[in-house]
Amino acid sequence: MTKTWWMLLVPGILALAAVVVVVMLFVVKLLWAWTIPDLFPGAVQQGLIAAKISWWTAFKVAIFAAVLAGLAGARHYQAK
Protein backbone atom coordinates (compact mmCIF):
# COMPACT_ATOMS: atom_id res chain seq x y z
CA MET A 1 0.00 0.00 0.00
CA THR A 2 2.77 2.45 0.87
CA LYS A 3 4.62 1.83 -2.40
CA THR A 4 1.46 2.48 -4.42
CA TRP A 5 0.87 5.71 -2.53
CA TRP A 6 4.39 6.98 -3.35
CA MET A 7 4.05 5.94 -6.99
CA LEU A 8 1.01 8.22 -7.28
CA LEU A 9 2.31 11.06 -5.13
CA VAL A 10 5.70 11.67 -6.78
CA PRO A 11 4.43 12.07 -10.38
CA GLY A 12 1.61 14.26 -9.09
CA ILE A 13 4.04 16.56 -7.31
CA LEU A 14 6.29 16.72 -10.38
CA ALA A 15 3.33 17.54 -12.62
CA LEU A 16 2.15 20.24 -10.21
CA ALA A 17 5.65 21.75 -10.09
CA ALA A 18 5.80 21.80 -13.92
CA VAL A 19 2.42 23.54 -14.10
CA VAL A 20 3.51 26.13 -11.52
CA VAL A 21 6.72 26.86 -13.48
CA VAL A 22 4.81 27.32 -16.75
CA VAL A 23 2.22 29.56 -15.10
CA MET A 24 4.92 31.69 -13.45
CA LEU A 25 6.78 32.07 -16.76
CA PHE A 26 3.54 33.15 -18.41
CA VAL A 27 2.95 35.68 -15.61
CA VAL A 28 6.46 37.10 -15.98
CA LYS A 29 6.07 37.43 -19.77
CA LEU A 30 2.65 39.03 -19.41
CA LEU A 31 3.75 41.49 -16.73
CA TRP A 32 6.84 42.43 -18.73
CA ALA A 33 4.84 43.14 -21.89
CA TRP A 34 2.23 45.04 -19.88
CA THR A 35 4.45 47.24 -17.67
CA ILE A 36 7.82 47.82 -19.32
CA PRO A 37 6.57 49.69 -22.43
CA ASP A 38 4.48 51.94 -20.16
CA LEU A 39 7.31 52.59 -17.70
CA PHE A 40 10.05 53.11 -20.25
CA PRO A 41 8.42 54.12 -23.56
CA GLY A 42 11.43 56.03 -24.88
CA ALA A 43 13.86 53.23 -24.08
CA VAL A 44 11.60 50.68 -25.79
CA GLN A 45 11.30 52.87 -28.91
CA GLN A 46 15.08 53.28 -29.06
CA GLY A 47 15.59 49.55 -28.62
CA LEU A 48 17.38 49.86 -25.28
CA ILE A 49 14.78 47.68 -23.53
CA ALA A 50 12.85 44.84 -25.12
CA ALA A 51 9.10 45.32 -25.33
CA LYS A 52 8.57 41.54 -25.18
CA ILE A 53 10.79 38.80 -23.80
CA SER A 54 11.32 35.16 -24.74
CA TRP A 55 10.42 32.18 -22.58
CA TRP A 56 14.09 31.66 -21.75
CA THR A 57 14.46 35.29 -20.63
CA ALA A 58 11.27 34.99 -18.57
CA PHE A 59 12.78 31.94 -16.88
CA LYS A 60 15.95 33.88 -16.06
CA VAL A 61 13.96 36.83 -14.70
CA ALA A 62 11.88 34.48 -12.55
CA ILE A 63 15.03 32.83 -11.17
CA PHE A 64 16.52 36.25 -10.44
CA ALA A 65 13.35 37.37 -8.65
CA ALA A 66 13.25 34.13 -6.63
CA VAL A 67 16.87 34.58 -5.52
CA LEU A 68 16.21 38.17 -4.49
CA ALA A 69 13.08 37.15 -2.60
CA GLY A 70 14.99 34.35 -0.90
CA LEU A 71 17.77 36.68 0.16
CA ALA A 72 15.30 39.24 1.46
CA GLY A 73 13.46 36.54 3.39
CA ALA A 74 16.67 35.14 4.83
CA ARG A 75 17.78 38.55 6.05
CA HIS A 76 14.35 39.23 7.51
CA TYR A 77 14.39 36.06 9.61
CA GLN A 78 18.00 36.53 10.72
CA ALA A 79 17.25 39.99 12.08
CA LYS A 80 14.67 38.73 14.56
What does this structure look like?
The protein is mainly alpha-helical and 80 residues long. The protein has one domain. The chain is 86% helix and 0% strand. The chain contains three helices and no strands. α1 crosses α3. It starts with a helix and ends with a helix.
Distance between the termini: 44 Å
- The averaged pLDDT comes out at 86
What is the helix fraction of residues, given as a range? over 70%
| Strand and helix order | HHH
Number of strands: 0
Runs in which pLDDT lies below 50 for 5 or more consecutive residues are: none
Number of domains: 1
- What does the radius of gyration come to? 18 Å
Largest sheet, described in full?
Answer: none
Shape: elongated
**Subunit arrangement of the protein:** single chain
State the secondary-structure class: mainly alpha
Beta-strand portion reads under 5%
Number of helices: 3
Q: What keywords describe this structure?
A:
80 residues; mainly alpha; 0% strand
